Amino acid sequence: QVQLVESGGGLVQPGGSLRLSCTVSGSIASITTMGWYRQAPGNQREFVAWISSDGFRADYGDSVKGRFTISIANAKKTVYLQMNSLKPEDTAVYYCYRAIGSHKAWGQGTQVSVSS
Question: What is the mean pLDDT of residues 64-79?
Answer without folding.
Answer: 91
